[in-house]
Structures are given as structure tokens and as C-alpha cells.
Amino acid sequence: MFQALGQIASRLLSDVKKSFARQQKEKSEKREVAPPAANYQPLKRVIITDGVGRTLFEEYAGHQGGQRGEEETGWVLLGVRQEDEALVLATLPAGAERDAGVGHVQFNSSGQVVGSRYVRQTDRRLTILGVVHTHPGSLRHPSDGDFRGDSIWVRQLRGEEGIFGIGTADSKPGNGTLVALQPRPHVQCLGKLRLSWYALGNGEKSYRPLPAGYTLGPDLARPLHLIWSDTEAHAERLDRLSRQQAGVTFEVVKGIKGPALAVLVPLAEPGHAIRVTLENGDVQYYWLRDGEVVLADPHEARIDRAVYLLLAELAAGSPH
Ligand SMILES: [Zn+2]
How far is the CA of 105 from the centre of ligand 1 (A)? Predict the structure, then answer.
């Protein structure tokens, strides 16, 4: 099961690395002091914010009740890797365009790259810590196929170690769904849903059960889940735009009917920008100038090209 994860996740990781290489270069050019290299020890535990715990259990429950409930699903975990523990602060969903069946799920990696950009705006220390994926049956442990992918993938992670959560829907409901239970240090349950946590280091022959704890905190990526299908649909173009234009930022805002993704492309003149909003399959472009908002229509479906057409209009001295 889940054999594709290793390859897909490593593609994701290399995409993220490429995407941030330029930002890191800019950062070093500003002569910021780099944090000292951490002396990573094997992970002793993983701490999950209540926000992340809610996302995992709520979206897993939603997935189970949905049309694709029989398939596996998953999330990428982002957070802060400390010396011998990790704090999970954000989840990125496998997404609507995931290729999933009963025996595997692979992530839409462009969506994940844009998601990483979004959460790293809040905290640049955020890194990929691992993945959670579900098993339709009662295998509460990563499979042999999972191991083949994961054991290669972990080499690219901080401390050459990854966190792997396995979701199953096979717990006795216990206390119902109001309060989560922790029957064993590495197991978290809510209703019939169960998350079993493991760590795997480079060169290790098997996964170790990883004690998990909760703390109060957000899932920094949760707002983006509301507009994940729009984000995914344009992710490749949005990522390209972010790599080519300095200072592009993403924000989840109130749209016309519901949440929207606003992409801000700052212009050289202070207070001037192009704003692109994505909502429910629609894309809108605006000129922002000292608080004034003017609708633009570049007649181009691809977002990066549309922005460059607007920039060309600006260079030609029209129209805003
Ligand atoms: Zn699996």
C-alpha cells in the first residue's frame, strides 16, 4: 500500500526546496544570521496542536462519509523540528486531484508546494515533518510498501527522520466523539477513528511507535483547506509566479460568496499591486493603487501569463 508516496513526496520536497532556494538566497544576501545547525537526536515524541488534531479527525470523518470514503487519503505534516521532538503546526491535504485507490494515495505536489509557501509566510521555520495516511482496513501500522518509499524519503528530512501517522476507522467508539482518547502513548482516538504514530530514521529496519501529545495551537494551513480545489487547479502557475516575482503573498479572504484565495503581486511603486482572487472556479484580477481597487481583465486563463500581460500594460503606460 501507498508505494507511490516515497516518490511523490520526494518530488514534493525537491519542488519545495527549489521554490525556496531563491528566497534563501535573498535571505543570505541580507546578511541575516543563520540559526546554528541543530544537533538532531532520534525523535522521542511528536506534539500536535489541537488545531492539527481537529483537522485530521474532522477531515478523516468527512472523507469517510464522502463518495471516495473507501479510498485512502492523506495529509502532509509541516512544523518545527527540534532536537528530539517535533511540533506539528500545519496540514496540507492530499487534495481533490489526488490519485487514490483502496491501496494507495499520491499527493498533488504543486498544490502542496503552494500550501507550503502559504504557511511559511507565518513561520519560516516550518519544514516537512512527515505524512499521515489512512488504511481502509485494520492495518494500524505502515505496510511493507510504505516502508520501501518512506525509508528512502526520510533521508531528505531534518535529522534524516520522518513522522508517519496511520489512520484507521476501527476503534471501539469508547467515549463517543466529544473527547479524544489516548489508549497508548502513540495512539490517539476519537470515536471510531484512530491515529497511530510512528517514526522512521534513515537506515532503520522498522518504524518505532512515537509517543504523541497535544498542545494548544493552530493548524496554520486550515484556512487554505476551504479553497483547496481552486489552489490546486492553479498551483503550478501560482508557484511559477512566486518564483519569478519577488514578494508574492497568499491570503485567504472573504470572497463574493465564500472564502477566496487572494494572491498579491507587489509592484515597484509603494502601495501599488496586482491582486488575483480565486473563488469557486473563478479568477479575478485587480489593480490596487493607494487604496483604490480597479477590476482588470487580461483575457488570459493562465494566471502567471495574465499577470505578465497586466505588467506589460503598466509598462506601456495604460490603463490604471
Ligand atoms: Zn499505507
Answer: 9
Cα gap 92→114, rounded to integer Å: 10
- CA–CA dist 307, 291 (Å, integer): 19
CA dihedral 259, 190, 81, 146 (to 10 degrees): -100
In sequence order, what DSSP letters do the residues of 171-236 get, joined into one string? S--TTTTSS-EEEETTEEEETTEEEEEEEEETT-SS-EE--EEEES---TTHHHHTTHHHHHHTHH
Q: Work out the pLDDT band at 184, boundaries 50, 70, 90.
A: very high
List the shell of residues around ion ligand 1, using CB closer than 5 Å.
Answer: 1-2, 143, 146
State residue 66's pLDDT score.
Answer: 82
Contact 167, 157 (CB under 8 A): no
Assess whether pLDDT exceeds 60 at residue 15: no
